[in-house]
Amino acid sequence: MSKNAQMALGYKKKRPFNAVSVPAEIVINIVMTLFCAACVIPFIFVVIISFTAEESIRQIGYSFTPVSWGVEAYKYIMKLGDQLWLSYFNSFFITIVGTILSVLICVLYSYALFRRDFKYRSFFSFFSFFTMLFGGGLVPTYMVCKQMLGLSDNYAALIVPLLVNPFNIIVMRTFFQSSVPEELIEAAAIDGSGEYNTLFRIIVPIAKPGIATIALLNALAYWNEWFIALLYVRERAKIPLQYLLMQMQRNVEYLAKNSANMGADAVAAASKLPTQSLRMALVVLIVVPIAFAYPFFQRYIIAGLTIGSVKG
Amino acid sequence: MSRVSVAKKANTTVSARRKKTFMLLTMVAPGAIWLILLRYLPMFGIVMAFQDYKIYTKAPSLINNIMNSNFVGIKNFKFLFMTKDSWVMIRNTLGYNTVFIILGLLISVTFAVILNEVTKKFVAKTYQTLMFFPYFLSWVVASYFVQAFLDPTNGLLTHAMQTWGMQPIDFYNSTKPWPYILTIAYIWKSTGYSVVLYLAAITGIDATQYEAASIDGASKLQQVFYVTLPHLKTMIIILFILAVGKIFNADFGLFYQVPMSSGPLMPVTQVIDTYVYRAMIATQNYSMTTAAGLLQNVVGFICIMVANSIVSKFDKDSSLF
Amino acid sequence: MKKKLLSLVLCIAMSATMLAGCGSTGSTETATESTETTETAEAPAAEETTEAPAEAATLDTSTPVTLKWYLHGSTVNDDKAVMAKVNEYLGEKLNVTLEPIWGTWGDFDEGSTLAINGGDDVDIYFTCSWSADEYNSFAKKGAWVRLDDPETNLLANYGSDIWNITPEVLKTGAEIEGSDGYGVYALPGFKDFGTQNTWDINVTLLEKYGYTLDDIRNTDYYGFGDILKTVKEGEGADFYPLLVEGAVLERMVDNSIIVNGDAGSLNVLSYYIDPTDVSKDLGSKIVNKFATEEYKKFVEQTREYYLAGYIDPGCANKQTANDLRTATQLDGKYLIGTQSYALGYEVQASAERGIDVAFVPCTPPYVDKTSTQGAMMAISTASKNPERAMAFLNLLNTDPYLMTLLEYGVEGTHYNLNDDGLVVFTKEHDNYQPWRNGMGNVTLLPPQEGEGKDFFTKVFIPYYEGAKAIPAFGYQFDPTSVETELATLANVGEQYALALSVGSVDPATALPEFLDKLEAAGMSKVVDEANVQLDAYFANEQ
After folding, report:
1. What is the mean pLDDT of chain C?
2. Distance, in angstroms, between A210 CA and closest chain B CA?
3. By Cβ atoms counted within 10 A, which residue in A254, C97, C130, C149 is the most buried?
4. What residue ranges are annotated as transmembrane (chain B) (predicted)?
5. pLDDT at residue C356 tops 60
């Protein structure tokens, strides 16, 4: 660890206790930067294409340096008017409510599974795991949800189908296993703390990073979901953003593929769409809000990261 | 101790135990009810895999349809094993998934561990956020990005090869590069997701353990091997077992969209899921899809049970159930 | 291990009891439903047979009924104004309240098939030969009510007005083998039901190099070489004169026909038509079209064109070929393209592309069974009021007021009529745009501005009614017994067909490989089966 290297990197402050050596950290930074560049460049590319004029795409294809710029795609989307904002609201609403509920159910379920002294522990583990592999398939699930549970044209139809994810339950249980010492629960029990009290007062604060991770995964799942809306929601006032935009994209693609069967008016409609830039503009509108929400969850995931700092 | 007091104590512990069990049952209840309604209830549909599914015209409803459809045995499974190409798709599915599981595990654990060593929190956060971006992009969008590089006329790579005086490769027509392209695409898209899981597990480690190790003179590398990895062990094993269960299910978008469903590439891109999809378009036979899905999951189930029983022999805590 | 076994057993037992439980409740529920339906369904039919066997039954409109109607391809954000008027009218006429489900291009396929398979209470579905709720296969599955069922005969009883004015080809085209025998399972819409494959010619560019349209007309695909060469040399290496859709090109060059019922993307089966007289009987025999000499000649020529740089390699990319095609057309950067023709398209194409576009037909317009099934309305077997549904379809397709209201919206709100009586849309039309061909009898509508006053009577109807039916027109392939083979064949076809048809692979190696794999996947079995059915069809015809 040479002083020069430290100077070169501009580390003026003392490095934290038990930190990795400076050359090692340089290597880490290079690897990470390269990988992250690979991850983010495609997105930048998507943004560029979304602002590219359609003629430019026709001439030179997708390019980082288009011949001419344009906002046709966004103009086309803005035609949706109020529906767009309504759908943004719907998306936020179902994401927030859905995430809270699903995290709650997941934490409760997986906490019980984490408890070694739970009599039916292995039964309920298997009970949730089994559904990861076997399900009734699309048609029976559709029938049960729509006709028996009444999940049709309401917010519940957009929230309930994603409430439980066995994968998340298993992962959450593992988080408990790796971060919660069992003596803690025993101690709490001896102190006369009730089960729910123990869970929410003692265990949850310790398992925060894990819970934040599960919350993140759930929030992403809710935000990205459109197929469920396709299945269960026909009322336009209730459709979420992702589906509104997906619908647009799917219409464009379907028209392009089948226009031969549809007659002249449909062909005309197909050729007028800003197809290529539109596709990318839709991605931008979907990704940006959730990407901004990301740091919120990250606060908890990275919280205890830096090794040197002693938790207070 | 008198007999009476022993009995009394036993009584209270029994009732305490009962109460505890009851409380824990109330915790699993919401999830379990959901699973019963939305997962177990529709499972009667599995029967369709063995049926020639018809609509019961007198009173159509899913249940009536199923009750009045004829059983055809394993006929719906046959299309999976008709030709020599079946071997190709099974080989591809298993081969790619094996590589994905091993490589994915190594890379994401490594990334999580080294990300943990970045001293500036802000920088680590930035890395982690950026890493997650591919997860937001669908395979369709990713496929356009890949095409921007590989396109035979406008592709960036094609142009570059021309300027360097090389013979450009006709990517969508040559099978050789695709195993690499697909693997890179998979790692690119999935790493951010698994890194988060591992990172959260690492964050849960008590910092004092590292301090203790450090004071004992453990090097950074030794700390990784003696503190971090043992803590990650359970998470690694669990994710591994779950991945093994999906070894016969391929990521449809990766194998269909990214190679632009190009015909000449099918020897290296055809997997079970793409095969079933293409067959489905041709026949619109819902029973055949159900059958294929069932078969994939039965095999996956067997794999998981085997993997899990091996794990639980050595390490009961890390097993699934 | 024991515990795990136990839990597994428990799981299975649980789902079994649930299955039993829900099965029994479900069946009792539907049992009562079914008695209800049979009562209502049989009551008028019984009257008909006992009281007035020869005449059409009168419709019982004493009870109000709601009809759910699943449409395709709509862009409808707000239908309140229209539906208020429609329901007022329908309430008077039929005591019906209409509830349309405005399926869009993107969601119709999943939405409709799930609704049908899951038994949703929808009365009328759009169906056709190319959507996911495909007419033939769902008729076989039992999704549609047979409209000319001898017992109920909805068509004769409640739909005679429209059925009497439906062209004969459409009637024959609608006859298929379904769950209740051979008959009509959906009402075909009067739309552009003819097929005509044409060369899409960039006349502006053609004339720049001293050629005329006659140079195209007087030769064929195999004779395009010189023209393509001259233009390619003149326009430079980045210019690809031939803009093709692989599957369409093959059909145009070889005059092969899509065999109805051979669904999916592959269309392995075919027979041939005479390009000068499409209805002439060539002694039709169904063949594996990829194994014919014609196909071999075609792929070899295409390969030559491809290697000479006449065909953009992008045409071989299934996912983006359409984007590429549209983009290239709009830029006018092509010389000869392929186009499945729609009447009046040259005017529109020329305007859009800023060049002079002409379409040179390969054959006169012809009618095949697939194109007559291009847009239909089927009554679901789940419908509790099939009579009222039929009566509604009858009214919709014969009543210009209702048709215009449902298709164009409210006059003064969604559209206005100009001095010639032509339709001019308002801004409000953006919120209410059902798909015209997907609605029904388009000839009832007032023409739109730009189409001309007598568009339907003088242009549209004569063109399509003049289209001749191909030989063995009524024949329909029933794939049920060879579904396993078709599933495998579809995969083999995906691997080779497109690449061969645009020339991106070398036929010398790929074609024999393709044929071997087709054979291994059971091609002969499918062809034999199709021919057995064709022979049976001819025997039946005589």
Report:
1. 84
2. 6
3. A254
4. 21-41, 94-115, 127-146, 180-203, 224-248, 294-311
5. yes
> Which pLDDT tens digit goes with each residue over B250-294?
999 999 999 998 999 999 999 999 999 988 888 878 889 899 999
Chain A contact present for B165, CB below 8 A: no
Domain encompassing residue A262: 81-273
Q: What is the pLDDT of residue C2?
A: 47
Does the reported pTM lie above 0.80? Answer: yes
> Rounded mean pLDDT of B195-213?
85
Do A194 and A54 lie in one domain? The reply is no
Say if residue A103 is in the same domain as residue A221.
yes
The shortest C-alpha distance from B263 to chain C (Å) reads 4
Give Cα separations from B77 to A186, B82, B289 (angstroms).
52, 10, 9
Residue C424 has phi, psi (to 5 degrees) of -120, 125
pLDDT exceeds 50 at position A34: yes
Residue A296 included in any domain: no
Give the largest Cα separation in chain A, rounded: 78
Instruction: Enumerate the domain spans of chain C.
Output: 11-49, 56-189+369-443, 257-296+475-542
Pinpoint the alpha helices (H) of C261-385.
Answer: 293-307, 321-331, 345-353, 369-372
- Report the topology of domain C56-189+369-443: D-Maltodextrin-Binding Protein; domain 2 (3.40.190)
Is residue A57 domain-shared with residue A152, that is, in the same domain? no
DSSP string, C141-200: HT-B--TT-TTT-HHHHH-HHHHHHS-HHHHHHHEEEETTEEEE-SEEP-S---B-EEEE
Residue C541 has pLDDT above 50, yes or no: yes
Same-domain check for residues A116 and A176: yes
- Find the residue in A nearest to B215 (Cα): A18
Tokens 């819409």 belong to C189
Structural domain contains residue A303 = no
d(CA B251, CA B273): 8
Kindly report the CATH number assigned to the domain that includes residue A227: 1.10.3720.10
Handedness of CA C141, C146, C152, C158 (dihedral sign): positive
Q: CB under 8 Å to C252, separation ≥6 — which residues?
A: C197, C199, C221, C338, C362
Q: State the total domains in chain A.
A: 2
H helix count then E strand count, chain B: 14, 2
* Residue A89 pLDDT exceeds 90: yes
* Residue B215, pLDDT score: 87
From the list C34, C134, C492, which residue is nearest B59 (CB)? C34
Q: Would you call B68 an interface residue with chain C, using a CB distance cutoff of 8 Å?
A: no
Confidence at B121, pLDDT banded by 50, 70, 90? confident
The pLDDT confidence band at residue C266, using thresholds 50, 70 and 90, is low
- Sign of the Cα torsion C432, C438, C444, C447 reads positive
Q: Which amino acid is at B206?
A: D
Q: Where are the domains of chain B?
A: 76-318
Q: Strands (DSSP E) along C341-451, which ranges? A: 357-361, 366-367, 376-379, 415-417, 423-425, 432-433
**Is position A109 within any domain?**
yes
Contact C108, C375 (CB under 8 A): no
A177–C contact, CB cutoff 8 A: no
**A95 and A59 share one domain:** no
Q: Within a domain: residue A243?
A: yes
Show the DSSP H helices in chain A as ranges: 3-9, 22-50, 54-60, 72-78, 82-114, 121-133, 138-143, 155-159, 166-179, 182-190, 195-197, 204-206, 208-224, 227-232, 241-258, 264-271, 275-302
| Predicted confidence band of residue A267 (pLDDT cuts 50, 70, 90) | low
Residues of B in contact with C496 (CB under 8 A): 263
Instruction: Please give the Cα distance from A19 to A81 (Å, whole number).
Output: 53
Helix or strand (DSSP H, E) at C288: strand C287-288
CATH classification (class only), B76-318: mainly alpha
- Chain B, 152-191: which have a CB under 8 Å from a chain C CB? 152-153, 170, 172-173
Domain match, A44 and A85 both? no
